[in-house]
Amino acid sequence: MAPANRRIRGRAPSADYWPGFVDAMSSLLLVLIFLLTIFMLTQFFLSQLVSSKDTALESLRSQIAELVSQLALVKQEKADLQLSIASLQTALATANAEKEKLGAQAGAGAQVSVLQDELAKQKDISNQELAQVELLNQQISALRRQLAALEEALDASEKRDKESQAQIADLGRRLNAALAQKVQELAKYRSEFFGRLREILGNRSDIEIVGDRFVIQSEIFFDSGSAELNPSGVDQLRKIADAVKQISSEIPSDIPWVLRIDGHTDVNPIHTAQFPSNWYLSSARAIAVVNFMAKEGVAPNHLVAAGFGEFQPLDTSGTPEALKRNRRIEFKLTER
């Protein structure tokens, strides 16, 4: 045993009653963050789809506006040509009348022939313009059909978006309800576990329940400055392992749980080749407990070891009794 001024004393979490609640809320927060991430990704891709469709719609509207403008110009040209044709027809009628009056005058016949040729040319031009107008009408109709299809697709996309949002909200409510139920069920088994440990270990002053943790002073398991289980500690841990195996057989398989073993020291520092700091000592003690319980038949996937050094004290008064209380091993049945 080392001298009193070199004794290694452990330390542990502060005596608040919230760690279990914080762990449960942390798990819930991770699920909510995951759901929000899915929701944000869905919103992003939907916004990209809507943006691309809006761009296409704007392009189509621009083309339609341009075609409508061209159509107006063609109609104006057509009207001008019709006026020209009417004027030429009037001139032709006048020429024919003069031809009848002039009879065999060759000059009148030549003028009529020129007017007839001009009229034929104007008719050809008018037919070309009409064909162009018809083509423009067909293009406008096709563009309108495309626009209708895009608007229909956009409506369908918005409908799917609303349905997805409703499904995400429903999933969130169901997950919250399921998580709350699992937390309540695990709390029930934790209470049973603590009760059995009390029955097994007896009502000792060096064993206490702090919040959701079963706290046992390190001296029960380890000698000062050591991470090797002493004979008394082996006997006590074997009883605890039996209780863990019994309660684990009763917990439903759909409840993800672990038994977390936390090692704590007091504020007195240690610096040896084996334990350079209190971190190493507290972690080594927690691992020693986990290894023993696994050898006793507790499922390893339900065991977790953690070392806290001197940074989570139960009592900060600095008295010898406080230092002894801070050197401890904690057992916490919690969700995985």
Key phrases:
336 residues, alpha+beta, Helix Hairpins, 60s Ribosomal Protein L30, Chain: A, 5-stranded mixed sheet, 5 helices, 67% helix, disordered N terminus
Note down, in words, how this protein is organized.
By secondary structure, the protein is α+β, with helices and mostly antiparallel strands. The protein has two domains: 149 residues, Helix Hairpins (Orthogonal Bundle); 132 residues, OmpA-like domain (60s Ribosomal Protein L30, Chain: A), CATH 3.30.1330. Helix content is 67%, strand content 9%. The chain is built from five helices and five strands. Helix 1 packs antiparallel against helix 2 and helix 3 crosses helix 4. The N terminus is likely disordered.
Helices, strands, pairings?
Elements: H1 19-102, H2 106-201, E1 207-210, E2 213-217, H3 231-250, E3 257-264, H4 278-295, E4 303-307, H5 320-326, E5 328-335
Parallel strand pairs: 3-4
Antiparallel strand pairs: 1-2, 2-5, 3-5
Characterize this entry briefly:
This protein is α+β, with helices and mostly antiparallel strands and 336 residues long. It has five helices and five strands; from the N terminus they run ααββαβαβαβ.
